[in-house]
Here is the input.
Amino acid sequence: MVFEYAPAPESPSVVNFASSYGLFIDGEFVEGTGSPMKTINPATEEVLAEVATASADDVDRAVGAARRAFEGPWGKMSGAERSKYLFRIARLLAERSREFAVAETLNNGKPIRESRDVDIPTAAAHFFYYAGWADKLEYAGHGPSPRPHGVAGQIIPWNFPLLMLAWKIAPALATGNTVVLKPSETTPLTALLFADLVQQAELPPGVVNIVTGAGQTGAAIAGHEGIDKIAFTGSTEVGRTIARQIAGTRKVATLELGGKAANIVFDDAPIDQTVEGIVNGIFFNQGQVCCAGSRLLVQESVHDEVVERLQQRLQTLRVGDPMDKNTDVGAINSGKQLERITELVAAGEAEGATSWQPECELPRNGFWHRPTVFTGVSQSHRIAQEEIFGPVLSVLTFRTPAEAVAKANNTPYGLSAGIWTEKGSRILWMADQLKAGVVWANTFNKFDPTSPFGGYKESGYGREGGRHGLAPYLKGEQR
Ligand code: NDP
Here is the structure.
Protein backbone atom coordinates (compact mmCIF):
# COMPACT_ATOMS: atom_id res chain seq x y z
CA MET A 1 0.00 0.00 0.00
CA VAL A 2 1.29 3.47 -0.93
CA PHE A 3 0.50 6.33 1.43
CA GLU A 4 -0.13 9.77 -0.06
CA TYR A 5 1.86 12.69 1.33
CA ALA A 6 -0.15 15.24 3.28
CA PRO A 7 0.80 18.85 2.48
CA ALA A 8 3.52 20.19 4.80
CA PRO A 9 3.65 23.91 4.04
CA GLU A 10 6.26 26.21 5.58
CA SER A 11 4.81 29.50 6.79
CA PRO A 12 5.45 32.61 4.66
CA SER A 13 4.85 34.74 7.76
CA VAL A 14 8.33 33.82 9.01
CA VAL A 15 9.62 36.68 6.86
CA ASN A 16 8.36 40.25 6.75
CA PHE A 17 9.23 41.89 3.46
CA ALA A 18 8.97 45.68 3.36
CA SER A 19 6.70 46.98 0.60
CA SER A 20 9.69 48.77 -0.93
CA TYR A 21 13.47 48.67 -0.58
CA GLY A 22 16.14 51.28 -1.27
CA LEU A 23 19.83 50.74 -1.98
CA PHE A 24 22.20 49.85 0.86
CA ILE A 25 25.03 52.39 0.68
CA ASP A 26 27.41 53.51 3.43
CA GLY A 27 25.62 51.50 6.10
CA GLU A 28 22.10 52.70 5.43
CA PHE A 29 19.17 52.26 3.07
CA VAL A 30 18.90 55.19 0.64
CA GLU A 31 16.67 55.96 -2.33
CA GLY A 32 17.83 54.90 -5.78
CA THR A 33 17.62 57.36 -8.66
CA GLY A 34 16.62 54.78 -11.32
CA SER A 35 13.00 53.64 -11.81
CA PRO A 36 12.01 51.08 -9.17
CA MET A 37 11.20 47.51 -10.24
CA LYS A 38 8.84 44.92 -8.83
CA THR A 39 10.13 41.56 -7.67
CA ILE A 40 7.81 38.56 -7.73
CA ASN A 41 7.35 35.04 -6.42
CA PRO A 42 7.93 32.89 -9.53
CA ALA A 43 5.71 30.11 -8.14
CA THR A 44 2.64 32.37 -8.02
CA GLU A 45 3.61 35.54 -9.95
CA GLU A 46 2.56 37.60 -6.90
CA VAL A 47 4.51 40.79 -6.27
CA LEU A 48 6.64 40.51 -3.12
CA ALA A 49 8.14 44.01 -2.98
CA GLU A 50 9.29 46.99 -4.98
CA VAL A 51 13.04 47.41 -5.25
CA ALA A 52 15.16 50.44 -6.19
CA THR A 53 17.27 50.55 -9.34
CA ALA A 54 20.78 51.95 -8.99
CA SER A 55 21.85 54.40 -11.69
CA ALA A 56 25.50 55.05 -12.57
CA ASP A 57 25.44 57.92 -10.04
CA ASP A 58 24.19 55.58 -7.30
CA VAL A 59 26.93 53.07 -8.15
CA ASP A 60 29.41 55.95 -7.90
CA ARG A 61 28.09 56.76 -4.40
CA ALA A 62 28.44 53.11 -3.38
CA VAL A 63 32.00 52.88 -4.72
CA GLY A 64 32.87 56.13 -2.89
CA ALA A 65 31.54 54.68 0.38
CA ALA A 66 33.46 51.44 -0.16
CA ARG A 67 36.66 53.40 -0.88
CA ARG A 68 36.29 55.48 2.30
CA ALA A 69 35.74 52.33 4.36
CA PHE A 70 38.78 50.70 2.75
CA GLU A 71 41.01 53.69 3.40
CA GLY A 72 39.43 54.17 6.81
CA PRO A 73 38.43 51.73 9.52
CA TRP A 74 38.33 48.49 7.54
CA GLY A 75 41.72 48.92 5.86
CA LYS A 76 43.35 49.72 9.17
CA MET A 77 41.76 46.87 11.10
CA SER A 78 43.77 43.78 12.04
CA GLY A 79 42.81 40.42 10.56
CA ALA A 80 41.80 39.17 14.01
CA GLU A 81 39.31 42.05 14.35
CA ARG A 82 37.94 41.48 10.85
CA SER A 83 37.41 37.82 11.64
CA LYS A 84 35.17 38.74 14.59
CA TYR A 85 32.82 40.54 12.19
CA LEU A 86 32.78 37.54 9.85
CA PHE A 87 32.02 35.17 12.72
CA ARG A 88 29.24 37.51 13.81
CA ILE A 89 27.71 37.49 10.31
CA ALA A 90 27.91 33.69 10.21
CA ARG A 91 26.24 33.38 13.60
CA LEU A 92 23.47 35.82 12.71
CA LEU A 93 22.84 33.97 9.45
CA ALA A 94 22.53 30.72 11.37
CA GLU A 95 20.19 32.35 13.90
CA ARG A 96 18.01 33.87 11.17
CA SER A 97 18.27 30.85 8.85
CA ARG A 98 14.55 30.05 8.77
CA GLU A 99 13.67 33.61 7.78
CA PHE A 100 16.35 33.63 5.05
CA ALA A 101 15.28 30.19 3.76
CA VAL A 102 11.66 31.26 3.41
CA ALA A 103 12.69 34.53 1.74
CA GLU A 104 14.91 32.64 -0.72
CA THR A 105 12.20 30.18 -1.65
CA LEU A 106 9.56 32.89 -2.08
CA ASN A 107 11.78 35.01 -4.36
CA ASN A 108 13.60 32.24 -6.27
CA GLY A 109 11.05 29.40 -6.54
CA LYS A 110 13.40 26.69 -5.24
CA PRO A 111 11.99 24.06 -2.82
CA ILE A 112 12.12 25.09 0.84
CA ARG A 113 13.90 21.81 1.56
CA GLU A 114 16.84 23.03 -0.54
CA SER A 115 17.01 26.60 0.76
CA ARG A 116 16.67 25.30 4.33
CA ASP A 117 19.15 22.40 4.05
CA VAL A 118 21.62 23.63 1.42
CA ASP A 119 21.60 27.33 0.47
CA ILE A 120 21.40 29.02 3.85
CA PRO A 121 23.58 26.63 5.93
CA THR A 122 26.25 26.59 3.19
CA ALA A 123 26.19 30.40 3.03
CA ALA A 124 26.70 30.61 6.81
CA ALA A 125 29.45 27.97 6.55
CA HIS A 126 31.31 30.18 4.03
CA PHE A 127 31.41 33.05 6.52
CA PHE A 128 32.54 30.69 9.30
CA TYR A 129 35.26 29.25 7.06
CA TYR A 130 36.67 32.57 5.82
CA ALA A 131 36.43 34.09 9.31
CA GLY A 132 39.08 31.54 10.23
CA TRP A 133 41.44 32.77 7.50
CA ALA A 134 41.25 36.53 8.22
CA ASP A 135 44.03 36.49 10.84
CA LYS A 136 46.16 33.83 9.13
CA LEU A 137 46.61 35.25 5.63
CA GLU A 138 50.40 35.28 5.86
CA TYR A 139 50.28 31.48 6.24
CA ALA A 140 47.90 30.93 3.31
CA GLY A 141 50.66 30.45 0.75
CA HIS A 142 50.20 33.84 -0.88
CA GLY A 143 53.44 35.44 0.27
CA PRO A 144 54.58 36.82 3.64
CA SER A 145 52.39 39.96 3.73
CA PRO A 146 49.50 39.63 1.31
CA ARG A 147 47.49 42.81 0.70
CA PRO A 148 43.89 43.36 -0.44
CA HIS A 149 43.07 45.00 -3.79
CA GLY A 150 40.72 47.61 -2.35
CA VAL A 151 37.14 47.84 -3.62
CA ALA A 152 35.63 44.69 -5.13
CA GLY A 153 32.68 44.94 -7.56
CA GLN A 154 30.63 41.75 -7.35
CA ILE A 155 27.84 40.74 -9.73
CA ILE A 156 25.81 37.61 -9.00
CA PRO A 157 23.02 35.57 -10.64
CA TRP A 158 19.60 34.36 -9.52
CA ASN A 159 20.09 30.62 -9.10
CA PHE A 160 21.66 30.66 -5.59
CA PRO A 161 21.12 34.28 -4.53
CA LEU A 162 22.36 34.19 -0.93
CA LEU A 163 24.93 31.46 -1.46
CA MET A 164 26.55 33.36 -4.35
CA LEU A 165 26.57 36.47 -2.17
CA ALA A 166 28.41 34.50 0.54
CA TRP A 167 30.88 33.06 -1.99
CA LYS A 168 31.69 36.64 -3.01
CA ILE A 169 31.52 38.66 0.20
CA ALA A 170 33.12 36.23 2.71
CA PRO A 171 36.58 35.93 1.04
CA ALA A 172 36.56 39.62 0.06
CA LEU A 173 36.05 40.76 3.66
CA ALA A 174 38.39 38.15 5.13
CA THR A 175 41.21 39.51 2.95
CA GLY A 176 40.43 43.14 3.89
CA ASN A 177 38.62 44.35 0.75
CA THR A 178 35.36 46.29 0.77
CA VAL A 179 32.52 45.45 -1.64
CA VAL A 180 29.81 46.80 -3.91
CA LEU A 181 27.53 43.88 -4.78
CA LYS A 182 24.69 43.65 -7.28
CA PRO A 183 22.20 40.79 -6.92
CA SER A 184 20.19 39.61 -9.92
CA GLU A 185 17.14 41.70 -10.79
CA THR A 186 14.83 38.71 -10.27
CA THR A 187 16.14 37.71 -6.82
CA PRO A 188 17.23 40.77 -4.83
CA LEU A 189 15.41 40.07 -1.56
CA THR A 190 17.84 37.90 0.42
CA ALA A 191 20.66 40.32 -0.46
CA LEU A 192 18.53 43.13 0.98
CA LEU A 193 17.81 41.08 4.11
CA PHE A 194 21.56 40.52 4.29
CA ALA A 195 22.03 44.32 4.28
CA ASP A 196 19.81 44.39 7.36
CA LEU A 197 21.98 41.67 8.91
CA VAL A 198 25.10 43.72 8.13
CA GLN A 199 23.60 46.58 10.15
CA GLN A 200 22.79 44.15 12.94
CA ALA A 201 26.42 42.95 12.93
CA GLU A 202 27.50 46.61 13.21
CA LEU A 203 29.94 46.36 10.35
CA PRO A 204 31.59 49.76 9.75
CA PRO A 205 29.57 51.74 7.16
CA GLY A 206 30.68 51.28 3.55
CA VAL A 207 32.34 47.87 3.99
CA VAL A 208 29.37 46.15 2.31
CA ASN A 209 27.22 48.07 -0.18
CA ILE A 210 24.31 46.43 -2.03
CA VAL A 211 22.98 48.04 -5.18
CA THR A 212 19.98 46.53 -6.90
CA GLY A 213 19.12 46.91 -10.57
CA ALA A 214 19.37 45.17 -13.92
CA GLY A 215 22.24 44.57 -16.35
CA GLN A 216 22.98 48.29 -16.69
CA THR A 217 23.72 48.56 -12.98
CA GLY A 218 26.11 45.60 -13.37
CA ALA A 219 27.77 47.32 -16.34
CA ALA A 220 28.15 50.52 -14.28
CA ILE A 221 29.98 48.53 -11.59
CA ALA A 222 32.24 46.75 -14.07
CA GLY A 223 33.02 50.05 -15.80
CA HIS A 224 33.61 52.17 -12.69
CA GLU A 225 37.15 53.50 -12.37
CA GLY A 226 37.13 53.17 -8.60
CA ILE A 227 36.65 49.39 -8.69
CA ASP A 228 39.88 47.40 -8.26
CA LYS A 229 38.60 43.87 -8.63
CA ILE A 230 35.60 42.29 -10.38
CA ALA A 231 34.01 39.00 -9.33
CA PHE A 232 31.23 37.83 -11.65
CA THR A 233 29.05 34.72 -11.77
CA GLY A 234 26.57 34.34 -14.61
CA SER A 235 26.34 33.60 -18.31
CA THR A 236 29.38 33.19 -20.55
CA GLU A 237 27.98 35.92 -22.80
CA VAL A 238 27.93 38.58 -20.05
CA GLY A 239 31.27 37.26 -18.74
CA ARG A 240 32.75 37.98 -22.19
CA THR A 241 31.26 41.49 -22.21
CA ILE A 242 32.82 42.21 -18.82
CA ALA A 243 36.20 40.78 -19.87
CA ARG A 244 36.13 43.09 -22.93
CA GLN A 245 35.02 46.04 -20.81
CA ILE A 246 37.91 45.74 -18.35
CA ALA A 247 40.61 44.72 -20.86
CA GLY A 248 43.49 47.18 -20.70
CA THR A 249 42.48 48.57 -17.29
CA ARG A 250 44.20 47.81 -14.00
CA LYS A 251 41.16 45.79 -12.81
CA VAL A 252 41.59 42.10 -12.11
CA ALA A 253 38.69 39.66 -12.49
CA THR A 254 37.39 36.24 -11.69
CA LEU A 255 34.63 34.90 -13.93
CA GLU A 256 32.46 31.93 -13.00
CA LEU A 257 30.41 31.18 -16.09
CA GLY A 258 28.28 28.46 -17.62
CA GLY A 259 28.74 24.70 -17.87
CA LYS A 260 27.55 21.56 -19.64
CA ALA A 261 28.80 18.86 -17.29
CA ALA A 262 29.11 15.21 -18.23
CA ASN A 263 27.89 12.76 -15.60
CA ILE A 264 29.56 9.49 -16.65
CA VAL A 265 28.14 6.11 -15.66
CA PHE A 266 30.18 2.90 -16.08
CA ASP A 267 28.63 -0.56 -16.19
CA ASP A 268 30.02 -1.48 -12.75
CA ALA A 269 28.43 1.51 -10.97
CA PRO A 270 26.04 0.72 -8.08
CA ILE A 271 22.79 1.45 -9.84
CA ASP A 272 20.59 2.73 -6.99
CA GLN A 273 23.15 5.28 -5.79
CA THR A 274 23.89 6.24 -9.37
CA VAL A 275 20.25 6.96 -10.15
CA GLU A 276 20.04 9.15 -7.02
CA GLY A 277 23.19 10.94 -8.17
CA ILE A 278 21.79 11.52 -11.66
CA VAL A 279 18.58 12.96 -10.17
CA ASN A 280 20.52 15.20 -7.78
CA GLY A 281 22.86 16.17 -10.62
CA ILE A 282 20.19 17.58 -12.92
CA PHE A 283 16.97 18.15 -10.96
CA PHE A 284 18.48 19.88 -7.88
CA ASN A 285 17.38 23.55 -8.06
CA GLN A 286 15.31 22.69 -11.19
CA GLY A 287 18.59 22.15 -13.05
CA GLN A 288 19.37 25.88 -12.79
CA VAL A 289 22.90 25.12 -11.67
CA CYS A 290 26.05 26.06 -13.59
CA CYS A 291 27.69 22.72 -12.69
CA ALA A 292 24.52 20.62 -13.27
CA GLY A 293 25.10 17.11 -14.67
CA SER A 294 23.10 17.92 -17.80
CA ARG A 295 24.79 15.39 -20.13
CA LEU A 296 24.44 11.83 -18.91
CA LEU A 297 27.02 9.56 -20.56
CA VAL A 298 26.05 5.94 -19.95
CA GLN A 299 28.08 2.87 -20.91
CA GLU A 300 26.13 1.23 -23.70
CA SER A 301 25.67 -2.15 -21.95
CA VAL A 302 23.71 -0.59 -19.06
CA HIS A 303 21.93 2.20 -20.96
CA ASP A 304 18.47 0.61 -21.03
CA GLU A 305 18.57 -0.43 -17.38
CA VAL A 306 19.79 2.98 -16.19
CA VAL A 307 17.17 4.86 -18.23
CA GLU A 308 14.38 2.57 -17.03
CA ARG A 309 15.37 2.92 -13.36
CA LEU A 310 15.75 6.66 -13.79
CA GLN A 311 12.26 6.98 -15.27
CA GLN A 312 10.82 4.93 -12.39
CA ARG A 313 12.53 7.24 -9.92
CA LEU A 314 11.36 10.40 -11.68
CA GLN A 315 7.74 9.21 -11.37
CA THR A 316 8.14 9.61 -7.61
CA LEU A 317 9.48 13.19 -7.70
CA ARG A 318 7.07 15.73 -6.29
CA VAL A 319 6.79 18.81 -8.49
CA GLY A 320 4.92 21.87 -7.24
CA ASP A 321 4.56 24.34 -4.37
CA PRO A 322 8.14 25.22 -3.33
CA MET A 323 6.94 26.10 0.18
CA ASP A 324 5.81 22.51 0.77
CA LYS A 325 8.52 20.62 2.66
CA ASN A 326 7.81 17.49 0.57
CA THR A 327 8.48 19.20 -2.76
CA ASP A 328 11.46 18.00 -4.82
CA VAL A 329 11.17 20.22 -7.89
CA GLY A 330 9.95 23.82 -7.59
CA ALA A 331 9.32 26.72 -9.97
CA ILE A 332 11.56 28.04 -12.75
CA ASN A 333 12.96 31.40 -11.70
CA SER A 334 11.42 33.60 -14.39
CA GLY A 335 9.24 33.65 -17.49
CA LYS A 336 12.35 34.50 -19.52
CA GLN A 337 14.21 31.44 -18.25
CA LEU A 338 11.19 29.21 -18.87
CA GLU A 339 11.08 30.46 -22.47
CA ARG A 340 14.73 29.56 -22.96
CA ILE A 341 14.19 26.05 -21.56
CA THR A 342 11.08 25.53 -23.69
CA GLU A 343 12.89 26.69 -26.81
CA LEU A 344 15.79 24.27 -26.27
CA VAL A 345 13.45 21.37 -25.50
CA ALA A 346 11.62 22.08 -28.78
CA ALA A 347 14.99 22.12 -30.56
CA GLY A 348 15.83 18.72 -29.06
CA GLU A 349 12.58 17.27 -30.40
CA ALA A 350 13.03 18.91 -33.80
CA GLU A 351 16.56 17.51 -34.10
CA GLY A 352 15.29 13.97 -33.55
CA ALA A 353 15.98 13.11 -29.89
CA THR A 354 13.22 11.34 -27.95
CA SER A 355 11.80 13.21 -24.94
CA TRP A 356 10.16 11.69 -21.89
CA GLN A 357 8.48 13.35 -18.89
CA PRO A 358 6.89 11.86 -15.77
CA GLU A 359 3.20 12.42 -15.29
CA CYS A 360 2.61 15.28 -12.90
CA GLU A 361 0.20 18.12 -12.56
CA LEU A 362 1.68 21.60 -12.71
CA PRO A 363 0.26 24.58 -10.80
CA ARG A 364 -1.76 26.99 -12.92
CA ASN A 365 0.11 30.21 -12.09
CA GLY A 366 3.85 30.70 -12.02
CA PHE A 367 6.65 29.28 -14.18
CA TRP A 368 6.96 25.49 -14.35
CA HIS A 369 8.69 22.83 -16.39
CA ARG A 370 8.31 19.08 -15.96
CA PRO A 371 11.49 17.07 -15.41
CA THR A 372 12.50 15.97 -18.92
CA VAL A 373 14.80 13.21 -20.16
CA PHE A 374 16.04 13.06 -23.76
CA THR A 375 17.35 9.76 -25.11
CA GLY A 376 18.86 9.16 -28.53
CA VAL A 377 20.87 12.36 -28.23
CA SER A 378 23.89 12.83 -30.46
CA GLN A 379 26.81 15.13 -29.78
CA SER A 380 25.84 17.64 -32.45
CA HIS A 381 22.37 18.27 -31.00
CA ARG A 382 21.86 21.69 -29.42
CA ILE A 383 20.64 19.98 -26.24
CA ALA A 384 24.06 18.28 -25.98
CA GLN A 385 25.99 21.48 -26.68
CA GLU A 386 24.16 24.43 -25.12
CA GLU A 387 23.53 25.16 -21.47
CA ILE A 388 19.78 24.67 -20.94
CA PHE A 389 19.78 25.72 -17.28
CA GLY A 390 16.61 23.83 -16.53
CA PRO A 391 15.33 20.35 -15.48
CA VAL A 392 16.33 18.70 -18.76
CA LEU A 393 18.71 15.75 -19.09
CA SER A 394 20.35 14.62 -22.35
CA VAL A 395 21.40 10.96 -22.41
CA LEU A 396 24.29 9.82 -24.63
CA THR A 397 26.18 6.51 -24.68
CA PHE A 398 29.81 5.35 -24.86
CA ARG A 399 31.66 2.03 -25.04
CA THR A 400 35.18 2.64 -23.68
CA PRO A 401 36.68 4.98 -21.08
CA ALA A 402 38.57 6.79 -23.85
CA GLU A 403 35.32 7.42 -25.72
CA ALA A 404 33.70 8.70 -22.52
CA VAL A 405 36.56 11.17 -22.04
CA ALA A 406 36.44 12.34 -25.66
CA LYS A 407 32.68 12.93 -25.48
CA ALA A 408 32.82 14.55 -22.02
CA ASN A 409 35.48 17.01 -23.19
CA ASN A 410 33.67 17.80 -26.44
CA THR A 411 32.21 21.07 -25.18
CA PRO A 412 33.38 24.67 -25.01
CA TYR A 413 32.71 24.53 -21.26
CA GLY A 414 34.71 22.85 -18.49
CA LEU A 415 33.19 23.47 -15.09
CA SER A 416 32.40 20.08 -13.58
CA ALA A 417 31.99 16.35 -14.24
CA GLY A 418 30.87 13.21 -12.43
CA ILE A 419 32.17 9.62 -12.58
CA TRP A 420 30.25 6.57 -11.36
CA THR A 421 32.27 3.35 -11.09
CA GLU A 422 33.53 0.93 -8.48
CA LYS A 423 37.15 1.11 -9.67
CA GLY A 424 39.35 3.64 -7.87
CA SER A 425 42.04 3.48 -10.54
CA ARG A 426 39.50 4.33 -13.23
CA ILE A 427 38.23 7.29 -11.20
CA LEU A 428 41.78 8.65 -10.92
CA TRP A 429 42.54 8.09 -14.61
CA MET A 430 39.29 9.71 -15.71
CA ALA A 431 39.67 12.68 -13.34
CA ASP A 432 43.09 13.29 -14.82
CA GLN A 433 41.74 13.31 -18.39
CA LEU A 434 38.60 15.37 -17.86
CA LYS A 435 38.87 19.09 -18.62
CA ALA A 436 36.71 20.20 -15.74
CA GLY A 437 37.44 22.34 -12.68
CA VAL A 438 35.55 20.01 -10.33
CA VAL A 439 35.24 16.24 -10.74
CA TRP A 440 32.92 14.36 -8.40
CA ALA A 441 33.33 10.60 -7.96
CA ASN A 442 30.27 8.53 -6.99
CA THR A 443 28.49 11.71 -5.91
CA PHE A 444 27.40 14.99 -7.49
CA ASN A 445 26.66 18.63 -6.63
CA LYS A 446 28.51 18.56 -3.33
CA PHE A 447 29.64 21.99 -2.13
CA ASP A 448 31.92 22.78 0.75
CA PRO A 449 33.53 26.09 1.70
CA THR A 450 36.91 24.41 2.10
CA SER A 451 36.97 23.16 -1.48
CA PRO A 452 37.88 25.34 -4.49
CA PHE A 453 35.35 25.68 -7.32
CA GLY A 454 35.82 27.14 -10.81
CA GLY A 455 36.21 26.38 -14.48
CA TYR A 456 38.31 25.74 -17.55
CA LYS A 457 37.79 27.13 -21.06
CA GLU A 458 34.49 29.05 -21.51
CA SER A 459 33.42 28.25 -17.95
CA GLY A 460 35.64 31.10 -16.78
CA TYR A 461 38.74 31.58 -14.67
CA GLY A 462 39.70 31.97 -11.02
CA ARG A 463 38.65 29.83 -8.08
CA GLU A 464 36.16 30.44 -5.30
CA GLY A 465 36.19 28.54 -2.02
CA GLY A 466 39.00 27.08 0.03
CA ARG A 467 42.49 28.55 0.36
CA HIS A 468 42.51 29.06 -3.42
CA GLY A 469 39.53 31.41 -3.06
CA LEU A 470 41.67 33.90 -1.12
CA ALA A 471 44.13 34.44 -3.99
CA PRO A 472 41.85 36.49 -6.31
CA TYR A 473 41.31 39.01 -3.50
CA LEU A 474 45.00 39.46 -2.73
CA LYS A 475 47.51 41.59 -4.63
CA GLY A 476 50.15 39.87 -6.68
CA GLU A 477 48.39 36.53 -6.44
CA GLN A 478 45.88 36.77 -9.29
CA ARG A 479 45.78 33.63 -11.41
P1 NDP B 1 23.34 36.97 -16.80
O1 NDP B 1 24.74 36.60 -17.05
O2 NDP B 1 22.69 37.95 -17.71
O3 NDP B 1 23.21 37.57 -15.33
C1 NDP B 1 24.15 37.45 -14.28
C2 NDP B 1 24.31 38.78 -13.56
O4 NDP B 1 24.94 39.75 -14.41
C3 NDP B 1 22.99 39.42 -13.13
O5 NDP B 1 23.15 40.10 -11.92
C4 NDP B 1 22.74 40.38 -14.27
O6 NDP B 1 21.87 41.42 -13.93
C5 NDP B 1 24.14 40.91 -14.53
N1 NDP B 1 24.35 41.52 -15.83
C6 NDP B 1 23.61 41.38 -16.97
N2 NDP B 1 24.18 42.09 -17.99
C7 NDP B 1 25.29 42.66 -17.48
C8 NDP B 1 26.32 43.51 -18.03
N3 NDP B 1 26.31 43.88 -19.31
N4 NDP B 1 27.34 43.90 -17.23
C9 NDP B 1 27.39 43.51 -15.95
N5 NDP B 1 26.45 42.73 -15.37
C10 NDP B 1 25.42 42.31 -16.12
O7 NDP B 1 22.47 35.67 -16.72
P2 NDP B 1 20.89 35.57 -16.99
O8 NDP B 1 20.21 35.77 -15.73
O9 NDP B 1 20.43 36.43 -18.12
O10 NDP B 1 20.77 34.06 -17.45
C11 NDP B 1 21.04 33.71 -18.82
C12 NDP B 1 21.72 32.39 -18.93
O11 NDP B 1 22.94 32.46 -18.23
C13 NDP B 1 21.00 31.23 -18.26
O12 NDP B 1 20.08 30.64 -19.11
C14 NDP B 1 22.13 30.31 -17.93
O13 NDP B 1 22.43 29.52 -19.04
C15 NDP B 1 23.28 31.23 -17.66
N6 NDP B 1 23.53 31.44 -16.23
C16 NDP B 1 24.60 30.86 -15.67
C17 NDP B 1 24.83 31.01 -14.32
C18 NDP B 1 25.98 30.38 -13.65
O14 NDP B 1 25.93 30.18 -12.44
N7 NDP B 1 27.04 30.08 -14.33
C19 NDP B 1 23.95 31.78 -13.46
C20 NDP B 1 22.86 32.41 -14.17
C21 NDP B 1 22.68 32.23 -15.49
P3 NDP B 1 20.29 41.20 -14.10
O15 NDP B 1 19.90 39.94 -13.47
O16 NDP B 1 19.76 42.34 -13.34
O17 NDP B 1 20.04 41.24 -15.57
User: Anything to note?
Assistant: DSSP finds 15 helices and 18 strands in the chain. The mean pLDDT is 97. Residues 346 and 383 are 10 Å apart (CA to CA).
